[in-house]
Write a structure and sequence with these properties.
This protein has helices spanning 3-30, 147-150, 215-241; strands at 41-45, 48-62, 65-72, 78-83, 87-95, 99-110, 113-125, 139-144, 153-155, 159-162, 166-172, 176-186, 198-200. A hairpin with a 3-residue loop joins strand 11 and strand 12 (176-186). Mean pLDDT is 80; it is low at 14-37 and 204-212. It has 248 residues and is an alpha+beta fold. It is 24% helix and 41% strand. Strands 1, 2, 3, 4, 5, 6, 7, 8, 9, 10, 11, 12 and 13 form a 13-stranded mixed β-sheet that branches. It has 3 helices and 13 strands, in the order αββββββββαβββββα.
């Protein structure tokens, strides 16, 4: 291969490299900023340890429309609970300007495992007032009592930990959805303030589906395929232009 051809291939390689950099940079530029959720809260009551970042969305009726209201669980929520050998619970209570709110989890222990058997939410307007202006709901009660849908549990003397967002719909007269962005939980601890080893959540936990990104792999594949084709064409063109041996 001549020096000119080698220089051409070098320039082509630099061009392809810069193209890949541009594709990657554009992808980063288009990424949306993450939505900020409620802060992480720590609770320690009876034999239950709980670190959680959580919010509850409720669909309230205002005339002929539906308005979604989100209640964030604050660090200042008042915890209460109780423990027995086979059943324990924790209830978190707080309020906003119009309502008293509570979120409660119940746990059951059997043989070498524990699981969350129910998740309950209530919202009650002050002095029987509507939860938001002009809404028809003065009280909301919702729950999920199917442990197979909650999927929050672990082996005995171990904690449950999940950094994925868990989206749990509750059953009630209106739509209520509990969103746990982070949770580290252990009932039946036997001692306060210390989590045991963690059983990490799996993909079977209900989470918001995220689309698979295929733009960058497709772009990189197309660029590499084009580079290979150009190299092959350049090679054969160079062979055709090479002068043959002259007979004496």
């Amino acid at each position: 291969m001549s020096g000119a051809q080698a220089k051409s291939l070098l320039r082509l390689s630099v061009f392809v490299f810069m193209g890949l950099k541009i594709v990657t940079a554009d992808k980063g530029h288009l990424s949306a900023a993450p939505t900020m959720g409620p802060g992480n809260c720590h609770f320690n009551v009876s034999c239950v340890l709980l670190d959680i970042s959580c919010s509850v969305s409720v669909d309230l009726h205002v005339g002929s429309t539906v308005q979604t209201v989100r209640y964030n669980l604050p660090q200042s929520a008042l915890p209460s609970g109780n423990c027995a050998s086979e059943v324990s619970y924790i209830t978190l209570e707080w309020n906003n300007t119009r309502a008293n709110l509570s979120l409660s989890l119940t746990f059951e222990k059997e043989k070498n495992e524990w699981e969350t058997s129910s998740l309950n939410f209530t919202a009650k307007g002050f002095n029987n007032q509507a939860l938001i202006t002009n809404s028809t709901e003065k009280e909301v009660i919702a729950s999920e009592t199917d442990s197979s849908k909650l999927k929050i549990g672990a082996n005995s003397n171990r904690s449950f930990k999940c950094d994925q967002e868990m989206v749990i719909p509750l059953q009630g007269k209106v739509k209520v959805v509990v969103s746990m962005r982070k949770i580290w939980l252990q009932p039946f601890t036997g001692k306060h303030g210390v989590f045991g080893g963690a059983d990490i959540c799996t993909s079977t936990i209900p989470v918001d589906a995220k689309p698979v990104d295929t733009i960058v792999p497709i772009a990189v594949g197309c660029v590499l395929a084009g580079l290979i084709i150009i190299l092959i064409i350049t090679y054969f063109v160079g062979r055709c232009k090479r002068p043959g041996y002259q007979k004496m």
